[in-house]
Amino acid sequence: MNHEEEYPANYLASILSDVKTIAMVGASPDATRFSYGVLRVLHEQGYNMIPVNPREAGNEIRGLKVVASLADIQEPVDMVQVFRASEALPAIAQEAIDIGAKVLWGQIGVYNEDAAKLAEQAGLRVVMDRCPKIELFRPFWKPKLNQDI
Prior knowledge:
- The protein is α/β, with parallel strands linked by helices.
- The protein has one domain (9-138): Rossmann fold (3-Layer(aba) Sandwich).
- The chain is built from five helices and seven strands.
- Helix 3 packs parallel to helix 4 (113-121).
- The longest helix is centred in the first third of the chain and has 11 residues, at 34-44.
């Protein structure tokens, strides 16, 4: 898949409807951070969220126990969402493959072709440089261009 082009709406929608458990790499306990807000919204929408952050391991974010790494997760993970630098994505892609995840999702600004190739060759669906929180609500954002201002 060419990740520099727009993703088909049905591709994103099918991922968001298929996944139930999301491991968020780079989750932050700081309520002012974007990762915290995305975790909050996805959790409120019914996704089973697992925060991953080695500095916060053993603590909780929004009542969810934080683990140090993907390898520490004791249940199946459908999607690995990444709030880390793009350079970290290939190693995280390999960890996602190792735990049997089905989707690798790089947050806005997180893009690495090598990671995408690695994950896709292992059978994972890949999304990069997108936010699942935004994509989850996109179908409701139909602009009314003919409206008077």
